[in-house]
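@channel sequence for tomorrow's demo:
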Amino acid sequence: MKTIQNQWPDCQPYGGAFTNMIPHLTVADKVDQETLGVVERALRPQLPIKCIAREIWLLRSDRSGIWSKAAGLELASSPV
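structure tokens (generated this afternoon):
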């Protein structure tokens, strides 16, 4: 079975601090409380979001904090 740990053993999610990873989507990061409140109020009525993950991305950030895709891992397809 393909896993993040097997694919990129030197790049453990969160430095290997967690054994049970729960897939999530960050929609607001490093913003003030007012902005966070606006985002939360806009999204809360639409939760939970139903989706199918088809690929895992290994992301990296440059010195200025810009994120880019370093690699990808396709997941096994499942019936919808």
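heads up for whoever presents: The mean pLDDT is 85.
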